[in-house]
Amino acid sequence: MLNNVKRFGLAVLASCVALNAWSIGGGGSSADKMIVGDSIFALSGDIHEYLEEDLNENIDTHARSGCQVNGGSLICSRRYTIPNQYDNADKSGIETVIMNGGGNDFLLGDGADCTTESCVEEVLMGIEQTLAGMYNDMRNDGIDEIIFLGYYNLGDPERDQINTVSMTYKAENYPQMGVKFIDTRPAFAGNESRYITSDGIHPTEAGSRVLADLILDTLD
User: Fold this and answer.
1) What is the pLDDT of residue 199?
2) E-assigned strands of the chain?
3) What's the Cα-to-Cα distance from 30 to each of 47, 126, 193, rounded to whole Å?
């Protein structure tokens, strides 16, 4: 049922590995904002660049292509899981964390082997449990603002069904957890051909511009 997700993830492996250089962010800078996450941020680097230009400030980024919330792969080892990106970063002066995560848990991780609804639910539960712990750590570290950039739908019924469950959970629960959730689906709906690249996953320059604008509108 969902094995095509795994095949699709492997099909983009080469491009993700080739462009992981965008994930190497500055540490110990005067930045008060940090990005952690996956290739939505790291593959092109466009969102990071747009935010820095529009805000006229440096933003540390530690996002890496292929990284999961739980587990690792050939593209991104467990060392660089999204929680570890945050844990290993210099957080001196950081007030805002901009992030995403969970997509690669289904493209490349345990979720790629799911063939039943119960398996999908188990993987989603594992992702949210790990993220909840991550948010708690951020609060304990004095992070004032946590922004989670949600995933847009891709036009694939199976993947979009999983995404709907995940995004619905976040929309309903994250505000109570002190996390600002950005639902990107409305902005991309009907614009997939302009906002999603030919690989069927990553944002184009125009799509990244839209995502950056959504983040800018959410920042305090």
Assistant:
1) 97
2) 33-36, 60-61, 96-99, 145-149, 179-182
3) 20, 34, 38
Contacts of 186 (CB under 8 A, 6+ apart): none
Query: Which distant-in-sequence residues (6+ apart) come within 8 Å of 104 by Cβ?
Result: 9, 38, 39, 66, 67, 68, 73, 75, 76
Question: 């529009």: which residue's tokens?
Answer: 54
- Quick: pLDDT tens for 67-121: 999 999 999 999 999 999 999 999 999 999 999 999 999 999 999 999 999 999 9
Q: Residues near 164 by Cβ (< 8 Å), separated by ≥ 6?
A: 153
Bridge partners, residue 147, by sequence? 98, 180
In the predicted model, residues of the chain with pLDDT beneath 50 are 1-19, 21-28
Across 36-66, b (16+ Cβ under 10 Å) vs e yields bbbbbbbbbbbbbbbbbeeeeeebbbbbbbb
Can you tell me the distance from the alpha carbon of 174 to that of 158, in angstroms, rounded to the nearest whole number?
Answer: 24
Token couple for 170:
């976040």
Side-chain half-sphere exposure of 145, counting CA atoms within 13 A: 16
Which pLDDT score, from 0 to 100, does residue 30 have?
81
Q: Which residue in 18, 185, 2 sits closest to 107, CA to CA?
A: 2
* Structure confidence at residue 106 (pLDDT): 96
